[in-house]
Amino acid sequence: MVSKSLFDDMIEGVQIIDEQFRYYYVNKAVAAHAKSTVAALTGKKMVDMFPGIEHTEVFELIKDCMDTGANLEMRNEFDFPDGSKGYFDLKFRRVPQGVLLMSIDVTNIVRANKILEKQANKLEGQVNKQTLKVEEQNKIISTQLDEMKLLNKELLLRNKEAEEFLYIASHDLNEPLNTIISFLDIIKKDYEKLEEQPNIEFFKYIDGSIDRMQELIKDLLEYSRIGHYGEIELIDTNALIKNILDDLSNVIKKSKAQIEIDSLPNIKGSKTEMRLLFQNLISNAIKFRKKDVNPKVKIGSYPNQGLNFYVKDNGIGVDEKHFDRIFKIFTRLNKQSEFTGTGIGLAYCNKIVKRHGGEIKVESKLGEGSTFSFTLKE
To answer: How far is CA 293 from CA 13, 145, 236, 288, in A?
Structure first.
């Protein structure tokens, strides 16, 4: 079970703002970011602790997340009461108690980037005017590159810690969920013994919520494992697609989908991850179909462009303003009642493609279908 102690000692700041805009929970990192203490913040209203915060973008995003449940994120420039500034990458998630904010202090990185940008501009002018000082300027550039390497190393470490936390959190969530399932089974059996059966329609809603939670936990674990699936090997792409379509045969038959496959080049990569990549794209092409229209899916590769594949469909399409968002984890553009899922599938694809040295993109128009294409390192 994930306890508050897990959040208390995290490097990242974790706080929960309740519906009265009070600090329901803050960990030590948040207190440090705010130049305060956990005790001083907990239970206090944001506007009392930081007068004027109600006029900021952060406060607006908290309200937006509270009202709509949307997953949001931003980089915030924060003015402390003592006149100093701080920079934080923020993620907003709706939770039962209010809004959960995860914050990473990037003040040093932002300041370093500003210093580097300023010095780079200065160096460019010096190179043009003072060619005799090239050797000294090279030393300065070398120092800057070392600083950037250190910053990059720090970011890689934080990404690794975030992945490890994601694995631990999703793994440990199974325990309390299994307890809920067990108690629910007991309650159901007690209700069955009653002479007059009450309306137990609400059990269906609970079961549905549990199913979605189990699917989310499974997807989180799968996402955290990407990058740890076996060795790189030569893969028969055509055979891989055939196996995937065999597994999806019931879905294809039920949806009356028409699948067209070009002859595909072989690839080198993790077979498990390549299977996840193609299966997610093909499943999405079938799932996100227009009402009363049989899905048509074409799987192919662009000739003379190396390892450049595509999955094309005649589905509902994607608005251009969401092209970048859809590859981020937990991003959903449609209601759960319309299309089931956790919003992690395309995040899988993006992570897998990048791990194999490629890029993934989408071309689409609402109501006219989509083409998802991706490259892989040869």
So the answer is: 47, 55, 32, 11
The pLDDT of residue 2:
40
Residue 52 to residue 43: CA distance in whole angstroms: 18
**From CA 299, how far away is CA 276, in angstroms rounded?**
15
Residue 331 in contact with residue 349, Cβ under 8 Å? no
DSSP string, 295-337: -EEEEEE-TTSSSEEEEEE-SS---GGGTTGGGSTT---S-TT
Copy the structure tokens of residue 42: 């907990």
Query: Of 13-22, 25-34, 309-318, which gets the smallest average pLDDT?
Result: 25-34
pLDDT number for residue 217: 55
Amino acid at 83: G
Kindly report, residue by residue over 35-48, the tens digit of the pLDDT: 889 999 999 999 99
pLDDT above 90: residue 200: no
Alpha carbon 161 to chain centroid distance? 15
Residue 182, classed as helix, strand or coil, is helix
Between β-strands 23-26 and 13-17, what pairing exists: parallel, antiparallel or unpaired? antiparallel
Distance CA 188, CA 203 (A): 8
User: Of 352, 373, 72, which is closest to residue 223 (Cα–Cα)?
Assistant: 352
Residue that has been written with the tokens 């030590």 in this structure: 28
Instruction: Give dist(CA 378, CA 45) in Å, integer.
Output: 55
pLDDT tens for residues 63-72?
Answer: 999 999 999 9
Name the 3-class secondary structure at 256.
coil
pLDDT computed for residue 168 by the predictor: 47
Helix 202-225, helix 134-172: angle, nearest 10: 140
Torsion of the alpha carbons at 126, 129, 135 and 139, rounded to the nearest 10: 0
Mention every residue, 6+ apart, whose C-beta is less than 8 A from residue 229.
Answer: 270, 271, 272, 273
b or e along 223-253 (b: 16 or more beta carbons within 10 Å of the residue's beta carbon)? bbebeebeeeeebebeebbeebbeebeeebe
DSSP letter string over 124-155? Answer: HHHHHH-GGGHHHHHHHHHHHHHHHHHHHHHH
For 127-148, the pLDDT digits (tens) are: 878 877 877 887 888 777 777 7
229 — phi, psi (to 5°)? -100, 85
- Backbone φ and ψ for 17, nearest 5 degrees, come out as -100, 125
